[in-house]
Write a structure and sequence with these properties.
Helix Hairpins, Four Helix Bundle (Hemerythrin (Met), subunit A), 7 helices, about 0% strand, elongated
């Protein structure tokens, strides 16, 4: 449709998607705080995945019908760019909380700096990170912390390698080597699945052998806040790449028209960069 601008028809998916995410997150909060809401959370998650699937379906159909022109392509690129920027700020807030706790709050409780008067609350408290002994006796810290050079390092290798394999798949698609793109994309998805499996093992070890739980003081809560949300993003990225794999296998995309694949690659590389930050600031430092 050269010379025209395609306006998508009215869609119910944004409203339904927001409702599904809202139900999932509220029930997740109820599950974490009160221990109830697991069933509703599962239903909300299923609703989110269903909306994602149907929304992807509609966009793919419109693209395959040739309804999108250069202006629409620019709109998609700007939209994806702003979405990733919002995700950057999302994680920046959590990294900022970790920075504030480590650099300001914990030292203040030990009498350091302008807020040193806070040390009067717990005069026997000694600042350290990881915070193994929280100042209040009502809260128990973790017994040990995870070594960054074991499971976290394995997961770092998995994700860094997945960025390489995805780049190879992208370049192969741009050169028209569809089978090569398919094979390297399968490798990328498998590496993402391996990451999630290893993270599950790490969480089991943290809970049952190291005493790292959501109730293990500020260290436990920041650990699971950052790594948990990142794991959710890896899951979403793996689902998106799986959709791209199905499209590649069905003969979709060509050398000049494959922004769906490119957008998924942007998202995956962003998730990889966030993990490197997590590995450094949560596990190593």
């Amino acid at each position: 449709m050269s010379g025209s601008y395609y306006v998508p028809p009215q869609s119910k998916w944004p409203a339904l998607g927001s409702l599904a995410v809202g139900v999932m997150m509220v029930s997740l909060g109820m599950q974490l705080v009160h221990g109830i809401g697991g069933l509703v959370m599962t239903l909300g998650m299923a609703a989110v995945l269903t909306v994602m699937w149907l929304w992807f379906r509609d966009v793919v159909r419109e693209s395959r019908q040739g309804l999108y022109d250069a202006q629409m392509d620019r709109s998609f690129r700007w939209g994806m760019g702003w979405f990733i920027f919002s995700e950057v700020m999302f994680f920046a807030a959590f990294f900022g909380a970790l920075f504030y706790v480590r650099v300001f709050a914990v030292p203040w409780l030990d009498g350091e700096g302008a807020k040193g008067v806070a040390a009067l609350l717990w005069p026997d408290f000694t600042a350290s990170w990881p915070l193994m002994n929280p100042p209040s006796e009502s809260i128990s810290g973790p017994r040990e912390v995870l070594s960054p050079w074991q499971l976290p390092l394995v997961n770092t290798i998995f994700l860094v390698t997945s960025s390489v394999t995805l780049t190879i798949a992208h370049e192969a698609l741009k050169e028209g080597y569809r089978n090569t793109a398919r094979n390297w994309l399968i490798g990328t998805i498998l590496l993402g699945v391996c990451f999630l499996v290893v993270q599950g093992i790490e969480y089991y070890e943290a809970y049952h052998h190291y005493g790292i739980t959501l109730q293990a003081g500020i260290y436990g809560s920041t650990f699971f806040l950052l790594t948990g949300f990142h794991g959710a993003h890896v899951t979403i990225g793996a689902i998106t790449l799986s959709v791209m794999l199905m499209r590649v296998m069905k003969g979709h995309f060509d050398r000049d028209d494959h922004f769906g694949f490119e957008a998924a690659a942007w998202y995956w590389h962003f998730v990889d960069v966030v993990w490197i930050g997590l590995f450094i600031f949560v596990y190593v430092l």
